[in-house]
Amino acid sequence: MLRQILTLIMVIIPSLSIAQLYEINIASVSFNSSAPKELIHASTDKLKGYIDPQKKIFAFKLDIASFNGFNSPLQREHFNENYMESILYPQAVYVGKIIEDVDLTKDGVYKVRAKGKLTIHGVEQERIINSLVETQGGKMVITSDFIVPLADHNIKIPRIVYEKLASDINVTVKATLVPKDVKR
For residues 154 and 19, which has the higher predicted lDDT (pLDDT)? Predict the structure, then answer.
């Protein structure tokens, strides 16, 4: 956890004095587990993060316990206590670099690949996540859909709920970013 925070600081602090950072203003992250006997959906608006479009670097974090929805309060409790262990691993973090050589500050629509370290449940995995970035009037809207295999992050599914919880979780992210210190 300390290493993740230090990485986040190392990515963001040097950029503060050199380039214009864009920070998340509004965000939505949702996930779906589509298993044979149950569909689970939860979402949160607690995604935080920055992009430095000049250096093409980013850092995002999300509080795991902020997810709401689920099919029951007990299901949310099991999500936090038994699967995600959100007391031990309170955040998901994604830190990395944008692969494409594009100027995200110019109005337009860009398909980009984000390459970085995705840490969930205390397990770091290198991931390339395809995203769509639409820049207009100084705002960036990022949308992305990707799959998180639970096994990649050492999240175990007990045999008793195997048909109620998918082994691959579909994640959808939509975030609006604005230049730092300019909230719109």
Answer: 154
